Amino acid sequence: MVRVTRRLAPSALVTAPPLQVRRGQEVDVGQGSDEWPAFVFVTADGEQKGWVPARILRIEGTKGRVLLGYDTTSLDPEIGDELEAIEEDVEGGWLWCRDSRSRTGWFPKNHLETPGR
User: Fold this and answer.
1) Same structural domain for residues 42 and 60?
2) Which of 3, 57, 84, 86 is most buried, most CB within 10 Å of its CB?
3) Domain annotation covers residue 14
4) Would 59 be classed as within a structural domain?
5) Whole-prediction pTM value?
6) CA atoms of 46 and 106, how far apart (whole Å)
7) Are 60 and 23 in the same domain?
8) Are 43 and 31 in contact (CB under 8 A)?
9) Where does the chain have alpha helices with state H?
10) Quick one: 101 exposed, middle or buried, by C-beta within 10 A (0-12, 13-18, 19+)?
11) Interatomic CA distance for residues 10 and 74, integer angstroms
């Protein structure tokens, strides 16, 4: 279990509903993130938008081909909430977590602490 020490910035919750891309899908690739340099902003199917790790794309100019399916769902817990860490995106700095209501999503590792450490 990990505990939330900071809230997620509103800019990180830019996509609602979350973007879900599938392997082989073509996307339009926008700019990278200054705050999260491992991520780029993409548009899929002309309207769905979200931040995805650049490493899951084969980028050629402003187009990209998805190499690995990805879901941009993020959690928005309160400070002090405990989350169960399920998977870590080491390069991106985020954890796929489950909250107390069994919702799952990404949350930045640098906004968390391990209780007792």
Assistant:
1) yes
2) 57
3) no
4) yes
5) 0.86
6) 24
7) yes
8) no
9) none
10) exposed
11) 11
